């Protein structure tokens, strides 16, 4: 491995044995053994295998990649794609089943809230403990202690046992420690999503500073494509444990969106309140649309569902995302005054709404179904529902100056102007 390489992975694989007893506590292992003996479900199994046999589950398979020093790599993929498993292997928390890993330098990891913290120790004591684990001497930690505490913004509670910290305080302190201690590679999982928006921006700025000004390598897992795009220069897409793409971050995001859309199309959503039956686009003649759409066309989004349990709090609609995962807006069937709401009948209903004309710039957009009981619970959260990809081409303006894509922006509205004086 040459000096310009931070991480080199060859033929990496991780296999788990489903149904194997390994709870780590004798009493739980005995419970698991008794359940298997009498043909009952394992009370401690995360995967309901019902002891059907020791089947192999490959969380990662045949991964080959090389990360250069100073790279900021965004690791993306659906839930269960193998992202966290990969980070745990690179952090040397777990070992691979196959393959080799070469790491050039010290690694600082931020994987789960509270990982590496001792509950009975104070925040200050945990800083020293984490530094010692990373191989730092006490005087090195002393020099950076004030900077770590200031960045974490929890100075008033630094001498309080961390068992009394909120999840947000955990994240602040854990990230501050990982970012300021002497390491060459920083690994951060989705755990940053626990913090508030202001701290997330602060953390992303710090990771960017560590890479550009100090030459550190950053590996960042997130479902927020906007954060991935703003921070990272390279992207890695994992799909069911396989490496789907590794390279330019914008291309990686596009690849992920394409595969995610294909997976979502076949999903069906059903619960006590409704069954989602279909969703599709139609034109002004009520014909289904599967082509590129002009900015000035009359296009309608249709949602067909079976309504089973009437409730005034029931909301169904759609959310619009850019090709990079940034949400543009939501729309529900309850956005208008209550007197104008659609009357939903028990049984099959098909509702529709017009996609705004003269609104979108040229590009690809994702229209995802969302559904909830207002202020009570989500049925389909934004970013998790089945979606339709729409490509807008043409029809942007009646002016001869702007008949193609605007140079910037996701919107290209056609607005009226008037002279006041």
Report on this structure.
The protein is an alpha+beta fold and 421 residues long. The protein is built from eight helices and 17 strands. Strands 5-6-7-3-8-9 form a six-stranded mixed sheet, with helices on both faces. Strands 12, 13, 15, 16 and 17 form a five-stranded antiparallel sheet that branches. A hairpin with a 2-residue loop joins strand 8 and strand 9. Helix 4 crosses helix 5 and helix 5 runs parallel beside helix 6. It is globular, with a radius of gyration of 25 Å. Mean pLDDT is 84; it is low at 47-53.
Rg computed from alpha carbons, rounded to a whole number of angstroms: 25 Å
Whole-number mean pLDDT: 84
- The N- to C-terminal Cα distance equals 70 Å
- Put simply, the count of helices is 8
The largest sheet has its strands arranged as 5-6-7-3-8-9
Structural class: alpha+beta
Task: Give the beta-strand count.
Answer: 17
Helical content (DSSP H or I, runs of 4+): 10-25%
Main sheet overview = 6 strands, mixed
Question: How would you describe the shape?
Answer: globular
In percent terms, what proportion of residues is strand? 25-35%
């Amino acid at each position: 491995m040459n000096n310009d390489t931070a991480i080199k992975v060859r033929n990496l694989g991780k296999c788990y044995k489903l149904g194997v007893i390994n709870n780590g506590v004798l009493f739980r292992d005995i419970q698991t053994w008794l359940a298997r003996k009498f043909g009952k479900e394992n009370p401690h199994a995360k995967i309901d295998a019902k002891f059907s046999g020791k089947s192999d589950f490959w969380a990662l398979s045949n991964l080959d990649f090389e990360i250069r020093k100073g790279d900021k790599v965004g690791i993306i993929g659906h839930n269960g794609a193998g992202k966290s498993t990969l980070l745990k292997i690179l952090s040397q928390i777990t070992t691979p089943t196959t393959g080799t890993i070469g790491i050039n330098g010290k690694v600082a990891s931020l994987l789960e809230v509270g990982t590496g913290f001792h509950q009975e120790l104070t925040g200050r004591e945990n800083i020293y403990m984490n530094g010692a684990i990373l191989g730092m001497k006490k005087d090195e930690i002393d020099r950076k202690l004030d900077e770590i505490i200031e960045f974490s913004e929890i100075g008033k509670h630094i001498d309080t046992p961390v068992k009394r910290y909120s999840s947000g305080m955990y994240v602040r302190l854990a990230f501050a420690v990982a970012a300021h201690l002497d390491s060459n590679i920083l690994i951060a999982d989705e755990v940053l999503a626990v913090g508030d928006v202001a701290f997330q921006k602060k953390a992303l700025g710090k990771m960017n500073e560590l890479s550009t000004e100090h030459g550190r390598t950053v590996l960042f897992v997130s479902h927020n494509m906007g954060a991935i795009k703003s921070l990272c220069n390279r992207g890695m897409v994992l799909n069911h444990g396989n490496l789907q793409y590794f390279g330019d971050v914008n291309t990686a995001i596009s690849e992920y969106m394409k595969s995610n859309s294909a997976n979502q199309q076949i999903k069906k959503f059903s619960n006590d309140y409704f069954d989602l039956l279909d969703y599709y686009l139609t034109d002004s003649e009520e014909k289904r649309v599967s082509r590129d759409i002009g900015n000035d066309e009359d296009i309608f989004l249709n949602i067909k569902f079976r309504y089973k349990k009437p409730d005034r709090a029931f909301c169904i609609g759609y959310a619009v995302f850019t090709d990079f995962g940034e949400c543009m807006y939501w729309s529900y069937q309850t956005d208008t005054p209550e007197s104008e709401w659609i009357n939903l009948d028990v049984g099959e209903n098909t509702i529709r709404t017009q996609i705004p004309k003269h609104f979108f710039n040229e590009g690809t957009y994702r229209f995802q179904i969302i559904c909830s009981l207002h202020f009570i619970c989500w049925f389909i959260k934004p970013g998790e529902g089945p979606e339709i990809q729409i490509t807008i081409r043409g029809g942007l303006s009646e002016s001869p100056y702007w008949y193609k894509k605007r140079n910037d922006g996701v919107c290209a509205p056609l607005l009226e102007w008037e002279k006041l004086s």
